[in-house]
Amino acid sequence: MNDEGVGRFVAGLRGNVIRPGDDGYDEARRLFNGMIDKRPLLIARCVDAGDVMTAVNFARDNQLAVAIRGGGHNGPGLGSVDDGLVIDLSMMKGVRVDPKNRTVRVGAGCTTGDVDHATHAFGQAVPFGIISTTGVAGLTLSGGHGYLSRQYGLAVDNLIGADVVLADGTFVTASETENPDLFWALRGGGGNFGVVTSFLFRTHPAKILYGGPIIFEMSDAERVMRWYRDFVTKAPEVFYIFLGLQSVPGGDPFPREHWNKKMCVLLVAHNGEGAEQAVNAIRAELPKPMIDWAGPIPYTALQSLFDALYPAGQQWYWKGDFVQALPDAAIAVHLKYAAMASPGSAMHLYPIDGAVRQKRPGDSAWSTRDARWSMVIAGIDPDPAKAGDLKRWATDYWKAIHPFDMAGAYPNFMMADEGEARLRASFGENYPRLAEVKKKFDPANLFHVNQNIPPAA
Ligand SMILES: Cc1cc2nc3c(=O)[nH]c(=O)nc-3n(C[C@H](O)[C@H](O)[C@H](O)COP(=O)(O)OP(=O)(O)OC[C@H]3O[C@@H](n4cnc5c(N)ncnc54)[C@H](O)[C@@H]3O)c2cc1C
Fold first, then answer.
1. What is the SS3 assignment for 417?
2. Which atom of ligand 1 is nearest to the CA of 143?
């Protein structure tokens, strides 16, 4: 790679390229996780599929490591790469809702908030995650679960098609009828197969839900967790509750007397008839909460409820597991480690049953259709000096709880140091097929800055 070649590359793009020393380089390379500090050689801010094709060809022809960046939210920072080329899609923000056919076409640089805003006007939504600043692309390609997943499935279960730039620089579309093997792999297999430039999703009704946090004292956590494990198995699919063990944030709007107290929180979201009565029924079964803010709430408000608590730039270290059951002994482990958590850290159990179970393991790359929860243990703190402590706490917690859990985890809740066995466990019987699809579409493993599935031998 010489200056002349770089110059031709820059001139050939409609978007701009940011290099070390340029104004805005530090801003452009910054990732959501402040623990990760990468220094790419080139950040190509692509504005269309043509730019992406040019960038892929340039990276391949110059043997540059290439990272694909959607929202930049990835835990281990796999949206960037040291000394390589970042294909930054954040400028590709178009969203077009088709209310008649109940679909939405989404540019690869959209956050979930961008899409929720557009679909909300039509009383529709796609099941995405719980923070509106997360990128649609990275979230979807590894699965994507959130408040609507028990009712409507994972984000990938609602993907109808995708436009993709492959490692050889060609542009294809993937759907059930076009390149079906690629489409199968994109629905859970992450960024291994190409650069998705736009997604087509099915949308579903979700306008005003009944939901919000109901927060309990830690002294009631054991009772709440036992109630919760039984409740989830019999709850209707319109009723989603995720459980968190964390601390009450030390600031408004939380009542001062509860600031920084450890808590057990139920994040409730009911998107059906009789929502208030259903939530009242669980209120009657549960201990008296210290805070109860559940009520009628627009879907977009629910989706961004946590945004302010999790600004970009904090230190994050997380580990996850798929979970089938929550025996008393596992609850005891959770309570032990939750008691040792730093004020920003959290353990969440996100239900992935209900509609997620309507698909079979082989229907898409996401194979785990028999788990009840996707669990994450997240060590979080604004202070870089705490990085080691966060990692130790999350790892010790995970080692203690993992024997109760399934072997695999949601790849979006893994750091970069989990090892191939964990990824194989997460994809189960789909792993060999994923490796074959990888071999077909990216035989030289150009796209390896991800939870990597090497091409089959
Ligand atoms: C605060 C927070 C809350 C979260 N909550 C949830 C949640 O509720 N539900 C949930 O499912 N997940 C959740 N996640 C996890 C989230 O889904 C992942 O972090 C995901 O990787 C973020 O996607 P991104 O596009 O922002 O990431 P990026 O860092 O931009 O990209 C991550 C990886 O995705 C791949 N990729 C990105 N764009 C493309 C593309 N266009 N084509 C091909 N590959 C691409 C690449 O391999 C890249 O390395 C959360 C994360 C955070 C930080």
1. coil
2. 11
Strand-pairing partners, residue 87, are 44, 68
| Token pair of 361 as six digits | 């393991």
Does 1 score more than 80 pLDDT? no
**What whole-number distance in Å separates Cα of residue 438 and Cα of residue 190?**
11
CA distance linking residue 150 with residue 155, whole number of Å: 11
CA 137 to chain centre: 9
Q: Which atom of ligand 1 is nearest to the CA of 139?
A: 17
> Virtual CA dihedral for 306, 304, 368, 326, nearest 10 degrees?
40
Q: Candidates 35, 47, 73, 448: which one to mutate for ligand 1, based on the most atoms within 8 Å of Cβ? A: 73
- pLDDT, residue 417, reads 85
HSE-CB at 422 with a 13 A cutoff on CA atoms is 19
- pTM for this structure? 0.97
Q: In whole angstroms, what is the distance from residue 186 CA to residue 156 CA?
A: 8
Query: For strand 295-298 and strand 42-45, is the pairing parallel, antiparallel, or unpaired?
Result: unpaired
Give the DSSP letter of residue 196: E
Find the helix packing angle between 49-61 and 3-11, rounded to 10°.
Answer: 170
Q: Ligand 1 center to residue 265 CA distance, Å? A: 24
